[in-house]
Amino acid sequence: MVIAVDQIDAQILELLKKNGRITHSDIGKIIHLSLPAVSERVRKLETGGFIDRFTVKLNREMMGTELLSFIFVALERPEHIGPFRAAMEKEEAVLECHHLAGEFDYILKAATRNTKELEELLSNRIKQIPGIVKTNTMIVLSTVKEE
User: Fold this and answer.
1) What angle do CA 139, 121, 62 make, to 5 degrees?
2) CA-CA distances (angstroms) from residue 113 to 3, 30, 69, 121, 127?
3) Edge-to-edge strands of the sheet including 67-75?
4) Is 42 in contact with 24 (CB distance < 8 Å)?
5) Cα(64)–Cα(59) distance, rounded to whole angstroms?
6) How far apart, in whole angstroms, are the C-alpha atoms of residue 64 and residue 58?
7) pLDDT digits (tens, 9 = 90+) for 43-67
8) Does residue 3 surpass a pLDDT of 80?
């Protein structure tokens, strides 16, 4: 079942994006809908696939993993894709893994405690995956916007 998102649904999604813990009651007060109406709309947005999951954004500094880096990865052949993806799914330091078009095959967003931990991630875990021919790592100095 495909549902269309109207202006009210868009408002609900924006409120949930800003605060995933906002209550349906509070959403209703902001957009002037009853609690059952908000609950039904959120349910439809979830079952319709517009809401993938509810999660929490951790403060990396408080967690001790404030060194953020982007790691570009080039694979030798397509048969290495499956094992690489499986390894990235399990790698706790890798926050995101995106398949790319261009010189590199993947970009990873990783959070580590320090450069020593980043080096260990690169040298002992990522570069040990069969089929990786090249990596290029960029360290984030500061973040202007992150969603």
Assistant:
1) 65
2) 43, 40, 11, 11, 19
3) 94-99, 106-112, 67-75, 132-139
4) yes
5) 9
6) 11
7) 999 999 999 988 888 888 889 899 9
8) no
